[in-house]
Design a protein that fits this description.
The chain is an alpha+beta fold. It contains 5 helices and 3 strands.
């Protein structure tokens, strides 16, 4: 799955936010999101398939964590666009100040 498709869904973005604090078991994610376990599992599979999270088994639990390399790639790709919009917004701000 494409990274942008994966992060387009709000629950998946929330999972990524929860994992920013560190590795978490699937059960904690279910509890934090207030979704069913099968629903969270589907979201986690999409995030795994997109390379945004990794999973490891520990006894009966599955522990999930952010895949920082993949996120760094996404951030690097987005960087020029952030500069583009920052420049455009600054130009709009200048224009609005001149209009007043």
């Amino acid at each position: 799955m494409d990274v942008f498709e994966a992060i387009a869904e709000p629950n998946r973005r929330q999972i990524l936010d929860l994992l920013r604090a560190g590795e978490r078991p699937a059960g904690e994610l279910v509890e934090a999101l207030g979704l069913s376990q099968p629903g969270v599992s589907k979201h986690l599979k999409v995030l795994r398939d997109a390379g945004l999270v990794t999973v490891r088994a520990e006894a009966q639990r599955r522990l999930y964590r952010l895949h920082s390399d993949r996120l760094a790639e996404l951030d690097a790709w987005l960087a020029p666009y952030r500069r583009f919009w920052a420049d455009r917004l600054a130009a709009l701000d200048d224009h609005l100040e001149r209009e007043q």
